[in-house]
C-alpha cells in the first residue's frame, strides 16, 4: 500500500440531492464510523482532495461546476457517486430539469447505490476507490496516466440528452417561455384586426 | 577644506546654470554631470578625512563677506516667504516669517558677527556618512527626476493641447500658468537643496547652520508648491508655517546660548557643554528648543501634516524630502545631540515624542491605501524611531539611529521612485489599483519589493537597526520604549506585509508589461536598488569603519567613558550571519528571477464557478462574470485617520507642550 | 554559538526536528480523536499525508509560490538550528518572522480571494503575537544578562521562577503560533472551515507538503521557546523542560478541542491585553526581585 491509499482526502459536492445522502456522508464522519481511521479527511477543497464524493442528481448549471471542481483536483483522483440519484438520477431521472447521474458531467469511478446511501456503503465505496487511486498513482509515477475521457457536453445545438428533450438552463427555459408567450398574443391579436 | 567648500558651492553654481539653461538635452547633461561630480567629490572627501576627522577655520579675510552673504541669504529666504504669504494672505506665515527674520538679524548682527570661533567647519565620520547619502541618494533622485519630469511635462503639454478655446480668458490664463514648463526652476531648487544640506552637515558655526536651515525650508516651500495648484499652495504654506516655527525655536535657542555668561557659537562646543553639565540642566531649554526645531523638520507628530501634504509635489520631491534631505537634517542634528540627551528633560522629550510618533504613525499607515501616504506615515514613524534612539543617549542607541538613518534614506528613495514610475505608467498610486503590478511591470515590482523588504524584515538593514535599537533599549532600561518598539514593530509588519503581498501577486493578464519604464528611469531605479543591496551587505564594514570610530571619537572629544568603549551593538558574528543570510537570499532570488518560469497550468479555486475568461472572475446566478477581487486589510475603524489620527495628534501635541512648559519653568527657576 | 555547534545543530534539527514534529502532529491527531470518542488515524498519519502530497501531480498557478515556500522552510530550519545551537534569541525570532512572511507572500502570489483573506488573517495573527514574541527575548535578557539561548545552562534557577507571567503570556500567544483554536484564523487542520482552507487554499501537492513540514519544524521550535523557561544548571533540567513542553502541547490540544474560532478583533484585543498585563506585571515583579533579592535567589 502506498501513501496515497493511507491518506485519501475527500471533497463532498451536493448536486441536487434531497439531502438524505448528504446527511449520511456526514454521518460517516462521526465518531461512530470514524473515517479518519483510514486517514480520510473531509477537506472541502478540490485542490487538496483525492476522492470526489457526489450526492444527488445533476442538472445543467451543475455540469460546469462539477467539471471545474474535477479539473482542479490533482491526479491521482477518483470520483465516487454516492446514492442512487448520483448514480443514475434516481427518482428524479424523469424530471424536466434533471440530466441524470454524476456521470453526465464527469467520469465516475465508483457507483455506490442506496436511497439514502448507508454510511457503511460510503466507506466501502471509498475503500474500493482506493484501489483505483493506487492504480492511477502507479500510472502517474510511470508517466503513463492519461486524463479520463469526459462525457460529451449537452450542446446548444443538441438540446436532447439520452433521448429526452431538456432545457439547458433556466435562461433557455425563460427564453422558450417568452417566445411561446409572444406567439400566443399575436395569434389572438391577428383575428381581432381582421374583425375590424 | 576646499572639498567641503566645493560640495557646498558647486551645487549652487549648478543651480544658477540650470536657471539659465532652458534646453532639455543640455539640462539633462548638466544634471548628470553635476551628480557624477558630486559623487566623486564625496568619495574624495571620504578618502581624505575618514581616518582623521578635522575641523577647519575659514581665513580671516573671507569671514566678513561670508557673514554678510549668509545674512543676506537668510533674510532673502524669509523675505520671499513673507512676500508670498502677504500675497496669499496667510496671517500665521506672515507673523512667523517676520519673527524669524527679526531673530536672524538680531542674532547675526548683535551676536554672531563678532563671535570668535575655533572651528568654522568640521568633518567627521558621521558627516561623511551624511554627505555620501546626500551625494549618492540625493544625486540618484536628481537623475531620476530628469526622466520623471520629462513624463510629467509631457502630460502637462498634452493637457495644454486639450484646453478648450472658448473658455473665459482669465481661467484660461490660470490654466496656462499651471501647465507652463518650469522645470529649470525645479532642477535649480533641487541642487540648492543639496548644497544647503551639505552646509548644514559641515558647518560648525551655529549661525551658518541657521542659514542652511532657512534655505532648506525655502527650498521645500518652493518644491511643494511647484505645481501651483490650490492644494499645492496651501500645503506649501502649511509646510513653511511648521518649519518656520521650528526655525523660530532654533533662532531663539541660538540667541539664548549667545547671551549666556559663556557665549557659545559652535555646535561642537554646544554639544560638549550640554553633555558634560551634570544634569544637562544648564542648557536644557536651548537643547529642547533645538530638538523642537529638529522635530518640526523631521515631521514628528503632531507636525506630521506638512510631510503628508508634501505629497502633492512631483514624486522626486517626495523622494528627496523623505530620503536624503530635509527630514534627515532634523534627525542628523538629533543624533549629533544624542550625547547630551539621555536621562534628562531634553532626552525624555526627544525620546517620548519620537517613540509616540513611531507608534502612532505606524498604526495610521495601516489604514492607508494611497501608497505615497503609506510611505509618508512610515517615514514619520521611522524618523520617530531615530529620534527615540537619539533620545536614549547611549552609544548603542546612536549606533542604531545612524543605521536607521542610512537604510531609511536608501529604501525610501527607491520606494518613492518606484511608485512614481508605476503611477506614470499604470495611472494610479492606490495600492489596490496597482494590483497585479508584478505581471504588468515585473522589474519595478521587484525593486518595490526589495525596498519594502528592506523596511521591515530580516536580514535587511532596517531590521538590523531595529534589532540594535531593541538591544540598546534593553540595556539602557527605558522600559516604556521597549513596549512601544515591540508593539510598533508588530504594526510595521502589518503595513508592509500586506502591501508586499499585493505587489508580488502573480496574476494572469493577456498583455504583460502594459507599462514599460524608460531606460534612464529603469537605470536609476536599478542603481538605487543596487545601492540598497550593497550597503546592506556592507553593514559590518560600515559599522567598523564609520560608525564605531565616530562613537569613539565623540567619546574622546566629550570625555564620555561609555562612548569611548563603544563597539558593534549586535556583535560582529551576528552581523556577519545576517550578511551571509542576505547574500544567500539575494542569490536565490536572482536565480529564481533568471530561471525560465513553468507555464501556468492551474486555475484558482472559486467554488467551481470560476469563469475562464477572466482569471479571477466567477459566474454569478445571472450567468454574468463578476470579479472576485479582494481588498486588502485596512482596519479603518481601528487605525483610520478619523478613528485615531486626530486624537493621537492632539495627545502628542499636549505632551510636547507639557515638556516645553516644563523646560521654560525649569529655566526660569534656575535664573 | 560556534560555527561547529551551529553545523551540528543544523544537521540535527533538520533530521530530528522533522521526526519530532511529525510524531507530535501524529500524537496530536490521535489525542484529538480520543477526546472526541474516536479511534483516530495511525501515529504516522502526518507522514503518510506528506508522502502522498509529494507523489501528486505537479501543477502550478505560478512559478513563485513553490519557491517562496521552499525559502520559508529553509528559514524555519535555520532559525530552529540557531535556537538549538544556543544562538541569539532575537535572531531566531527575526528569522522565523521572515519564514512567516514568505508563507504569507506565497499565499498572496496566487491572487485567489480565499488565499488572500487567509493571508490577511495570518498577518493579523502576526500582529497579535509579535509583541509578546519580541518582548520574550528582552525579558530573557533581563533575567540572564544575555540574548544567547545558551545562557540558560549556567542559570542557578530556571527562568520560570522570575518570569512566570512572561511564561503565561507566551502560553497564550503560542496558541496562535501552533494554529490551534480559538486562534486558528488563517487555517487549521480541521475539516471544513468557512474559508475553504484559508491561507493554504491554493497550495497543492508538493507545495502543501512543504507547508506541512515547515509547520512541523515551527512546532518544535515553539515548544523549544516553552522549554527554555525550565532549564537551569541542574542535570535533570533538560528532561523537565521536555516534559513541560509536551504538557503544554497537551494543554493546547485540550484548548483546541474546547474552543470555537473567534473573530480577529477578539484575538487581537485579547492577545495584546494579555501581553501588556503579563509583561508589565512581570516587569514589576522583576524590579521587586532585583530590589530585595539582589544577591540572587
Share in β-strands of chain B? under 5%
Mean residue pLDDT of chain B: 87
- Unreliable parts of chain B: none
Helical fraction of chain B equals over 70%
Structural class, judged by helices and strands of chain A?
A: alpha/beta
User: Strand count, sense and closure of the main sheet of chain B?
Assistant: 2 strands, antiparallel
Note down, in words, how this protein is organized:
The complex is a heterotrimer of chains A (196), B (671) and C (297). By secondary structure, chain A is an alpha/beta fold. Chain A has two domains: 139 residues, Rossmann fold, CATH 3.40.50; 30 residues. In chain A, 41% of the residues lie in helices and 15% in strands. Chain A is built from six helices and nine strands. Chain A has a five-stranded parallel sheet. Chain A starts with a helix and ends with a helix. Chain B has 671 residues and is an all-alpha fold. Chain B has one domain. In chain B, 74% of the residues lie in helices and 2% in strands. Chain B has 27 helices and four strands. The radius of gyration of chain B is 25 Å and the shape is globular. Chain B starts with a helix and ends with a helix. The model of chain B has no long low-confidence stretch (mean pLDDT 87). With 297 residues, chain C is an all-alpha fold. Chain C contains nine helices and no strands. In chain C, helix 3 runs parallel beside helix 7. The model of chain C has no long low-confidence stretch (mean pLDDT 90). At the B-C interface, helix 20, helix 21 and helix 25 of B face helix 3, helix 4, helix 5 and helix 9 of C.
Give a nutshell description of this structure.
With 196 residues, chain A is an alpha/beta fold.
Amino acid at each position: 500500500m502506498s501513501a496515497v491509499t493511507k491518506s485519501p482526502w475527500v471533497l463532498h459536492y451536493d448536486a441536487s440531492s434531497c439531502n438524505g445522502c448528504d446527511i449520511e456522508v456526514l454521518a460517516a464522519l462521526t465518531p461512530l464510523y470514524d473515517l479518519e481511521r483510514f486517514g480520510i479527511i473531509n477537506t472541502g477543497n478540490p485542490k487538496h482532495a483525492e476522492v470526489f464524493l457526489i450526492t444527488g442528481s445533476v442538472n445543467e448549471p451543475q455540469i460546469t461546476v462539477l467539471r471545474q471542481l474535477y479539473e482542479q483536483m490533482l491526479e491521482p483522483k477518483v470520483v465516487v457517486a454516492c446514492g442512487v440519484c448520483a448514480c443514475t438520477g434516481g427518482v428524479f431521472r424523469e424530471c424536466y430539469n434533471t440530466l441524470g447521474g454524476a456521470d453526465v458531467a464527469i467520469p465516475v469511478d465508483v457507483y455506490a447505490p442506496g436511497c439514502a446511501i448507508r454510511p457503511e456503503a460510503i466507506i466501502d465505496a471509498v475503500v474500493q476507490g482506493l484501489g483505483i487511486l493506487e492504480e492511477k498513482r502507479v500510472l502517474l509515477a510511470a508517466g503513463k496516466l492519461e486524463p479520463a475521457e469526459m462525457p460529451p457536453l449537452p450542446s446548444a445545438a443538441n438540446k436532447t440528452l439520452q433521448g429526452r428533450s431538456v432545457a439547458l438552463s433556466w435562461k433557455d427555459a425563460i427564453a422558450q417561455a417568452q417566445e411561446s408567450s409572444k406567439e400566443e398574443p399575436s395569434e389572438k391579436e391577428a383575428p381581432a384586426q381582421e374583425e375590424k | 577644506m576646499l572639498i567641503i567648500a566645493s560640495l557646498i558651492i558647486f551645487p549652487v553654481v549648478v543651480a544658477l546654470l540650470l536657471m539659465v539653461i532652458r534646453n532639455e538635452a543640455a539640462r539633462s547633461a548638466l544634471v548628470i554631470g553635476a551628480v557624477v561630480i558630486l559623487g566623486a567629490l564625496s568619495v574624495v572627501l571620504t578618502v581624505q578625512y575618514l581616518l582623521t576627522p578635522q575641523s577647519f577655520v575659514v581665513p580671516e579675510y573671507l569671514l566678513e563677506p561670508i557673514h554678510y552673504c549668509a545674512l543676506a541669504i537668510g533674510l532673502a529666504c524669509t523675505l520671499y516667504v513673507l512676500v508670498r504669504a502677504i500675497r496669499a494672505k496667510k496671517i500665521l506665515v506672515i507673523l512667523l516669517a517676520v519673527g524669524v527674520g527679526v531673530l536672524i538679524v538680531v542674532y547675526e548682527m548683535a551676536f554672531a558677527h563678532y563671535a570668535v570661533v575655533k572651528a568654522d567647519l568640521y568633518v567627521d565620520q558621521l558627516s561623511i556618512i551624511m554627505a555620501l547619502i546626500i551625494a549618492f541618494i540625493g544625486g540618484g533622485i536628481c537623475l531620476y527626476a530628469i526622466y520623471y519630469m520629462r513624463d510629467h511635462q509631457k502630460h502637462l503639454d498634452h493637457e495644454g493641447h486639450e484646453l478648450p478655446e472658448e473658455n473665459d480668458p482669465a481661467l484660461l490664463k490660470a490654466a496656462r500658468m499651471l501647465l507652463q514648463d518650469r522645470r529649470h526652476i525645479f532642477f535649480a531648487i533641487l541642487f540648492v537643496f543639496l548644497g544647503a544640506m551639505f552646509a548644514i552637515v559641515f558647518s560648525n558655526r551655529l549661525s551658518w547652520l541657521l542659514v542652511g536651515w532657512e534655505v532648506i525650508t525655502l527650498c521645500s516651500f518652493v518644491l511643494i508648491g511647484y505645481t501651483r495648484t490650490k492644494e499645492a499652495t496651501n500645503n506649501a504654506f502649511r509646510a513653511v508655517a511648521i518649519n518656520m516655527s521650528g526655525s523660530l525655536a532654533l533662532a531663539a535657542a541660538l540667541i539664548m546660548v549667545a547671551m549666556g555668561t559663556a557665549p557659545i557659537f559652535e555646535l561642537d562646543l554646544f554639544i560638549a557643554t550640554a553633555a558634560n553639565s551634570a544634569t544637562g540642566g544648564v542648557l536644557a531649554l536651548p537643547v529642547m528648543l533645538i530638538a523642537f526645531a529638529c522635530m518640526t523638520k523631521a515631521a514628528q507628530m503632531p507636525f506630521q501634516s506638512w510631510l503628508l501634504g508634501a505629497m502633492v509635489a512631483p514624486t522626486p520631491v517626495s523622494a528627496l524630502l523623505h530620503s536624503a534631505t530635509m527630514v534627515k537634517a532634523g534627525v542628523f542634528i538629533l543624533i549629533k545631540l544624542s550625547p547630551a540627551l539621555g536621562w534628562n528633560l531634553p532626552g525624555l522629550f526627544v525620546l517620548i515624542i519620537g517613540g509616540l510618533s513611531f507608534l502612532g504613525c505606524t498604526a495610521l499607515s495601516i489604514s492607508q491605501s494611497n501608497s505615497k501616504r503609506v510611505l509618508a506615515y512610515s517615514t514619520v514613524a521611522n524618523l520617530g524611531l531615530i529620534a527615540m534612539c537619539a533620545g536614549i543617549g547611549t552609544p548603542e542607541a546612536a549606533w542604531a539611529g545612524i543605521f536607521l538613518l542610512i537604510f531609511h534614506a536608501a529604501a525610501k528613495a527607491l520606494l518613492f521612485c518606484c511608485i512614481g514610475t508605476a503611477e506614470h505608467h499604470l495611472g494610479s498610486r492606490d495600492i489596490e489599483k496597482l494590483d497585479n503590478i508584478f505581471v504588468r511591470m515585473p522589474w519595478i515590482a521587484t525593486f518595490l519589493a526589495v525596498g519594502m523588504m528592506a523596511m521591515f524584515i530580516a536580514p535587511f538593514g532596517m531590521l538590523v537597526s531595529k534589532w540594535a535599537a531593541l538591544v540598546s533599549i534593553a540595556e539602557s532600561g527605558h522600559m516604556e520604549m521597549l513596549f512601544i518598539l515591540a508593539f510598533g514593530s508588530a504594526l510595521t509588519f502589518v503595513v508592509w506585509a500586506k502591501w508586499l503581498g499585493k505587489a508580488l501577486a502573480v496574476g494572469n493578464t493577456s498583455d504583460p508589461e502594459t507599462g514599460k519604464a524608460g531606460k534612464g528611469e529603469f537605470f536609476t531605479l536599478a542603481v538605487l536598488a543596487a545601492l540598497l543591496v550593497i550597503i546592506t551587505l556592507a553593514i559590518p564594514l560600515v559599522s567598523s569603519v564609520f560608525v564605531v570610530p565616530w562613537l569613539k571619537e565623540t567619546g574622546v572629544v566629550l570625555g564620555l567613558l561609555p562612548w569611548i568603549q563603544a563597539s558593534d551593538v549586535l556583535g560582529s558574528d551576528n552581523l556577519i550571519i545576517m550578511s551571509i543570510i542576505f547574500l544567500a537570499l539575494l542569490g536565490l532570488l536572482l536565480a529564481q528571477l533568471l530561471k525560465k518560469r513553468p507555464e501556468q497550468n492551474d486555475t484558482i479555486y472559486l467554488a467551481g464557478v470560476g469563469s475562464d475568461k477572466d482569471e479571477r472572475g466567477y459566474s454569478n446566478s445571472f450567468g454574468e462574470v463578476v470579479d472576485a477581487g479582494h481588498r486588502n486589510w485596512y482596519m479603518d475603524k481601528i487605525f483610520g485617520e478619523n478613528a485615531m489620527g486626530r486624537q493621537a495628534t492632539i495627545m502628542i501635541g499636549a505632551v510636547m507642550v507639557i515638556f516645553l512648559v516644563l523646560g521654560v519653568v525649569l529655566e526660569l527657576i534656575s535664573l | 554559538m560556534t560555527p561547529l555547534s551551529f553545523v551540528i545543530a543544523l544537521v540535527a534539527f533538520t533530521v530530528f526536528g522533522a521526526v519530532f514534529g511529525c510524531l507530535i502532529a501524529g500524537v496530536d491527531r490521535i489525542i484529538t480523536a480520543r477526546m472526541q470518542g474516536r479511534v483516530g488515524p495511525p501515529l504516522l498519519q502526518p507522514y503518510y499525508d506528506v508522502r502522498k502530497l509529494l507523489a501528486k501531480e505537479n501543477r502550478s498557478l505560478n512559478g513563485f509560490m513553490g519557491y517562496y515556500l521552499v525559502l520559508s522552510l529553509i528559514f524555519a530550519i535555520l532559525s530552529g538550528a540557531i535556537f538549538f545551537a544556543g544562538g541569539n534569541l532575537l535572531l531566531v525570532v527575526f528569522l522565523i518572522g521572515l519564514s512567516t512572511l514568505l508563507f504569507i507572500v506565497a499565499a498572496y502570489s496566487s491572487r485567489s480571494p480565499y488565499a488572500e483573506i487567509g493571508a490577511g488573517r495570518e498577518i493579523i495573527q502576526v500582529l497579535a503575537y509579535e509583541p509578546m514574541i519580541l518582548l520574550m527575548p528582552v525579558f530573557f535578557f533581563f533575567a540572564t544578562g544575555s540574548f544567547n539561548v545558551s545562557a540558560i545552562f549556567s542559570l542557578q534557577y530556571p527562568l520560570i521562577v522570575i518570569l512566570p507571567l512572561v511564561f503565561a503570556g507566551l502560553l497564550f500567544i503560542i496558541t496562535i503560533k501552533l494554529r490551534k483554536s480559538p486562534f486558528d484564523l488563517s487555517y487549521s487542520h480541521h475539516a471544513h472551515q468557512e474559508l475553504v482552507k484559508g491561507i493554504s487554499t491554493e497550495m497543492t501537492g508538493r507545495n502543501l507538503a512543504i507547508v506541512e513540514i515547515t509547520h512541523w519544524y515551527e512546532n518544535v521550535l515553539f515548544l523549544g521557546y516553552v522549554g527554555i523557561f525550565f532549564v537551569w544548571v541542574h542535570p535533570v533540567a533538560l528532561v523537565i523542560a521536555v516534559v513541560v513542553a509536551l504538557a503544554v502541547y497537551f494543554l493546547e490540544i485540550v484548548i483546541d478541542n474546547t474552543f470555537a474560532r473567534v473573530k480577529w478583533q477578539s484575538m487581537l484585543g485579547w492577545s495584546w491585553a494579555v501581553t501588556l498585563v503579563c509583561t508589565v506585571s512581570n516587569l514589576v515583579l522583576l524590579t521587586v526581585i532585583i530590589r530585595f533579592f539582589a544577591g540572587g535567589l
